[in-house]
Amino acid sequence: MYSLDLDVFSTLIKWLEADTPSWLCTVTSTWGSAPRDVGSLMVCNDKGEQCGSLSGGCIEGDLLENIHAGKIARDKSQFILYGESPEEAERLKLPCGGTLGVLIEPMSANEETLSWLRKVKNIIERRECITRDVAWSNCGSVVSSQAFSVGVNGKWFAVDIGQESLEKFPVSLHQIYGPQFHLFLIGVSEVARALAKFALLMDYRVTVCDPRPEQIAKWDIDNVTLVQAMPDDGVLEHAEDAHSAILALTHDPRIDDMGLLEAFNTKAFYIGAMGSMATSRKRHERLLSLSISEDDLKRLHAPIGLNIGSKTPSEIAIAILAELTQVRASMKSQKSG
């Protein structure tokens, strides 16, 4: 996940409330080696400010320059295809052979627009998903953009281009906006510290839960939510949704097992526990004795992380995040397949 939907919409609302002309830009389609996923968002305004990203390169600069000059999307939405020619791909620093379709929508500071933007923001803040259907006309205007439904499970199915699409130009889009992916870490440890550092760089929201006050007091990484509570209570309050991963990291079954017992009652997309093969077998037996079913235990990744021979806390953290990336990619493939 490259840009955070909540940040994008919060910023757009703030600009429109200040009556600042603004545009919502969406990556609608990609071909070849594209720098961003379909569904990536960016907002910009006539002051040259932006939030979010479409390419991580020069597309943003070119887009802002043309919008500011009034050359594109001045009073109606416009679809632009970047990187069609080798010269343009080189000029804009696109990957070799990559092209990028972007829908640019001028946003009006009226109550109708602000109403649906606030609705999207509020739903994402509740860690739910919402869809927005956009009908695209051949003359370059958005015909309808107010059809919403709530409760879609999965940020990874970002944009669905309708079957009636004309080659590379979308006729209708089914856009899903959703919350940031979330790591819920049970237990303060060196692995938890390494995980938090790397996960923040990967745009995860991170929560660390530990019932031991002396361990909470040792935490020294910013931008992480600290929860001093029993892990089952922490899971119930903070990690029930389908965008959360719950990781047991203490090696203490009195703490880890309590969190795992509650984790199986959630929609978490990943549940994992750290430990050796022998430790994992013992944990499996304990959880069965506590009335956890074999079907539930199939959700548990243990030992946690990809088997890459990791030993140090940083290596273990990399292995865990690599497995999370693999799981998310598999979900995306299943949703779009």
Blueprint of the fold:
Layout (H helix, E strand, L loop, with lengths): L4 H13 L4 E10 L9 E5 L4 E3 L6 H10 L9 E5 L3 H6 L7 E9 L3 H15 L4 E7 L5 E9 L8 E3 L10 E6 L4 E5 L3 H12 L3 E5 L3 H4 L8 E3 L3 H8 L5 E5 L4 H11 L6 E4 L3 H13 L4 H4 L2 E2 L11 H24 L1
Parallel strand pairs: 10-11, 10-13, 11-12, 13-14, 14-15
Antiparallel strand pairs: 1-2, 1-5, 2-3, 4-5, 6-7, 6-9, 8-9
Short structural summary:
This protein is α/β, with parallel strands linked by helices. The protein has helices spanning 5-17, 59-68, 86-91, 111-125, 190-201, 213-216, 231-238, 253-263, 277-289, 294-297, 313-336; strands at residues 22-31, 41-45, 50-52, 78-82, 99-107, 130-136, 142-150, 159-161, 172-177, 182-186, 205-209, 225-227, 244-248, 270-273, 300-301. The strands form three sheets. The chain has a six-stranded parallel beta sheet, with helices on both faces. It has a five-stranded antiparallel beta sheet with strand order 3-2-1-5-4, with helices on both faces.
Structure description:
It is built from 11 helices and 15 strands. With 337 residues, the chain is an alpha/beta fold. A 6-stranded parallel beta sheet has the order 12-11-10-13-14-15, sandwiched between helices. Strands 3-2-1-5-4 form a 5-stranded antiparallel beta sheet, sandwiched between helices. The protein has a 4-stranded antiparallel beta sheet with strand order 7-6-9-8, covered by helices on one side.
